[in-house]
């Protein structure tokens, strides 16, 4: 074992060192060596008559369960027998369930080596230590996003700046741009493309207080931070997203009648075409019908390779049903099935864990010792955040099977050499996708999640110039003659059935019966996590312009994109206080092992994805708007807040490895139970 501070706990990996006393005993002098026959005889007599020799292992186990983990590890250094008992996985399972408040019905995470290794992971490998506080923004920091290679992250703020940071410790500014030069009021969202060569930045234009006008700007990240193109985006809370490495999605809103509008989603090239006026730079992708003053918001794209399996799609029962946004009865989520705490890992991560598990069994991976030096701060019961509850049926199905994830569509290779890929090649052989967005049908506030399957797209190579001027004049005159003979009928936009053929249909709607304030995808794009502030149960909306009151607590819902069904719920998870008319986005993020979210109670929260328990909360002095994990290092988390600060949190293990002096520490949730009840 490597050298460790005197206060740390050492493990003997093979049941103690070679000069340990005989198993089950220890000399009075505390030494395992004898300097003479008299001392040796005394030791032998002590070993044979020691009452510890005759205590059965179940009794030892019960005694150890009365100890704290540190005390048991210290006791394990006494002799070989105690060392072996201190590694018993039954004991570590009890410790794990007690310390982290894990439901006793949940088994060991698939791919994990042991309960002891899981105890170490939740002790040493959770982002817990505050290593950086960045104060370069002069206003509220609204959003943070990481590059796919984990080397950069970008922040957006109400000061109008977008700043790109180097993620290596200590974090430094790489590039920045003042978007107020382009008549922006502030920046609100950013996203790196898959090759990390371009950065999409979304923001709000200057205008009237109720203006919904926004814009998307694309910057080059490599070889200088240069503005590459600008795209209109309305309403601004569509945000925009990358569709592929060289194409992005934006939106537009057109009012058709009172409370009725259409949302148009555009597929845009990520560069401004200047070679020819006949080369198109954008193409209409979808046109959706909106009723009751609602609109499409917060669009995102998920890569779903399982959609390419036509046989699975034809089974029908589990797949999405095709219906329109106005006429479909949304899926209700007040299911009464038996639920069990716990959240399945991404399938890709499970496969990785299984491979690691095989390596552990082959003896090729070294597990470092558990280090319990860093103290934790237990919280009172009323401070404990809710766990994730999962459908029992889903957990059984999940743990018994593995599925090939979307990683075939998510190439994170650092040595990528396709940066100069043409726009045409970029859209060829697309992985099947879901377009995901929030919308509404009962009121203007978003309370539904919409899904639209994308199998392929057609982007024109050349703009059709259309008829000549002379031909257009002749066509206009003919149309006027026809109108005089038979006046055209005005479309009844309020009647969706009468105009349904003019719009694209939504494949699936899931109604969450609450105000949706944030969404995030798991790394493999299999699960969608949604922040929602629930409405009162059975509330009847009589006026679409007067949405229901919303709860202060934020629920987190988990949707499986393979079945388009809700598979998990975390009720009353964290806090928000703004009313429904002023409700804003609280971004959340998901990595392989954890889920994190901001909140309005001046904290961010983190849960373990599999066990579902809340592990920690991160302090700020105002609303925490956004969180983001480093995709290449789950032990690094960034939080942004209305207190103008960006805080970077790393695990205790990483902090020690990098030799970082912590600036502060988050609050751990270790809800200790009564030792007496634990030992029964």
Automatic annotation (TrEMBL):
<dbReference type="InterPro" id="IPR036322">
    <property type="entry name" value="WD40_repeat_dom_sf"/>
</dbReference>
<dbReference type="InterPro" id="IPR001680">
    <property type="entry name" value="WD40_rpt"/>
</dbReference>
<feature type="region of interest" description="Disordered">
    <location>
        <begin position="310"/>
        <end position="349"/>
    </location>
</feature>
<dbReference type="Pfam" id="PF00400">
    <property type="entry name" value="WD40"/>
</dbReference>
<feature type="compositionally biased region" description="Low complexity">
    <location>
        <begin position="27"/>
        <end position="37"/>
    </location>
</feature>
<feature type="domain" description="F-box">
    <location>
        <begin position="49"/>
        <end position="95"/>
    </location>
</feature>
<feature type="repeat" description="WD">
    <location>
        <begin position="134"/>
        <end position="166"/>
    </location>
</feature>
<dbReference type="InterPro" id="IPR042508">
    <property type="entry name" value="FBXW5"/>
</dbReference>
<feature type="region of interest" description="Disordered">
    <location>
        <begin position="401"/>
        <end position="425"/>
    </location>
</feature>
<protein>
    <recommendedName>
        <fullName>F-box domain-containing protein</fullName>
    </recommendedName>
</protein>
<feature type="repeat" description="WD">
    <location>
        <begin position="617"/>
        <end position="649"/>
    </location>
</feature>
<feature type="region of interest" description="Disordered">
    <location>
        <begin position="1"/>
        <end position="40"/>
    </location>
</feature>
<keyword id="KW-0853">WD repeat</keyword>
<dbReference type="InterPro" id="IPR036047">
    <property type="entry name" value="F-box-like_dom_sf"/>
</dbReference>
<dbReference type="InterPro" id="IPR015943">
    <property type="entry name" value="WD40/YVTN_repeat-like_dom_sf"/>
</dbReference>
<dbReference type="InterPro" id="IPR001810">
    <property type="entry name" value="F-box_dom"/>
</dbReference>
<dbReference type="Pfam" id="PF12937">
    <property type="entry name" value="F-box-like"/>
</dbReference>
């Amino acid at each position: 074992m490597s050298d460790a501070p005197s206060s740390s706990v050492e493990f003997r990996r093979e049941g103690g060192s070679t000069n340990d006393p005989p198993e089950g005993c220890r000399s009075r002098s505390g030494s395992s060596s004898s300097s003479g026959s008299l001392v040796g005889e005394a030791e032998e007599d002590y070993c044979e008559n020691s009452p510890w020799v005759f205590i059965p292992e179940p009794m030892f186990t019960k005694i150890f369960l009365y100890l704290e983990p540190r005390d048991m590890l210290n006791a394990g250094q006494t002799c070989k027998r105690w060392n072996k008992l201190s590694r018993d996985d039954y004991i570590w399972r009890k410790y794990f369930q007690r310390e982290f408040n894990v439901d006793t019905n949940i088994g060991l995470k698939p791919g994990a080596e042991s309960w002891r290794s899981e105890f170490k992971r939740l002790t040493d490998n959770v982002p817990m230590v505050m290593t950086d506080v960045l104060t370069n923004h002069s206003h509220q920091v609204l959003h943070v996003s990481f590059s796919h290679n984990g080397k950069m992250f970008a922040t957006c703020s109400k000061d109008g700046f977008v700043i790109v940071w180097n993620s290596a410790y200590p974090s430094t500014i790489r590039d920045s741009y003042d978007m107020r030069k382009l008549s922006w009021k502030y920046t609100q969202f950013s996203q790196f493309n898959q090759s990390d060569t371009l950065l999409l930045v979304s923001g709000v234009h200057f205008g009237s207080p109720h203006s919904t006008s926004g814009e998307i700007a694309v910057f080059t990240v490599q070889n200088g931070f240069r503005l590459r193109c600008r795209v209109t985006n309305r309403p601004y809370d569509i945000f925009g997203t990358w569709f592929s490495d060289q194409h992005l999605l934006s939106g537009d809103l057109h009012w058709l009648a009172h409370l009725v509008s259409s949302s148009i989603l555009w597929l845009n090239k990520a560069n401004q075409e200047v070679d020819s006026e006949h080369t198109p730079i954008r193409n209409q992708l979808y046109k959706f019908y909106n009723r009751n003053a609602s609109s499409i918001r917060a669009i995102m794209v998920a890569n779903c390779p399982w959609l390419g399996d036509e046989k699975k799609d034809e089974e029908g029962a589990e797949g999405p049903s095709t219906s329109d946004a106005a006429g479909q009865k949304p899926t209700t989520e007040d299911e009464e099935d038996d639920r069990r705490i716990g959240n399945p890992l991404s399938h890709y991560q499970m496969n990785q864990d299984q491979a690691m598990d095989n390596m552990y069994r082959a003896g090729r991976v070294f597990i470092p010792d558990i280090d319990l030096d860093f103290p934790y701060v237990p919280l009172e019961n009323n401070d404990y955040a809710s766990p994730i509850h999962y459908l029992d049926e889903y957990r059984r199905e999940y743990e018994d099977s593995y599925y090939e994830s979307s990683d075939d569509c998510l190439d994170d290779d650092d040595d990528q050499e396709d940066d100069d890929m043409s726009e045409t090649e970029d859209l060829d052989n697309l992985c099947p996708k879901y377009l995901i967005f929030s919308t509404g049908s009962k009121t203007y506030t978003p309370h539904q999640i919409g899904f639209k399957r994308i199998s392929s797209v057609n982007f024109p190579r050349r703009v059709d110039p259309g008829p000549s001027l002379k031909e257009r004049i002749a066509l206009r005159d003919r149309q006027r003659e026809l109108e005089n003979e038979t006046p055209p009928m005005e479309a009844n936009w309020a009647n969706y059935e009468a105009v349904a053929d003019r719009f694209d249909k939504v494949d699936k709607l899931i109604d969450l019966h609450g105000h949706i304030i944030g969404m995030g995808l798991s790394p493999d794009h299999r699960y969608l996590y949604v922040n929602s502030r629930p409405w009162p149960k059975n509330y009847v909306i009589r006026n679409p312009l007067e949405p229901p009151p919303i709860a202060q607590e934020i629920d987190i819902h988990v949707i499986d994109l393979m079945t388009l069904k809700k598979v998990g719920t975390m009720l009353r998870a964290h806090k928000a206080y703004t009313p429904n008319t002023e409700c804003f986005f609280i971004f959340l993020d998901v990595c392989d092992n954890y889920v994190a979210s901001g909140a309005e109670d001046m904290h961010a929260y983190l849960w373990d994805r599999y066990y579902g328990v809340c592990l920690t909360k991160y302090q700020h002095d105002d609303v925490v708007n956004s969180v983001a994990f480093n995709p290449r290092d789950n032990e690094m988390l960034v939080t942004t807040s209305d207190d103008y600060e960006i805080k970077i949190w790393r695990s205790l293990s990483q902090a020690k490895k990098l030799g970082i002096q912590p600036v502060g520490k988050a609050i751990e949730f270790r809800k200790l139970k009564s030792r007496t009840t634990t030992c029964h």
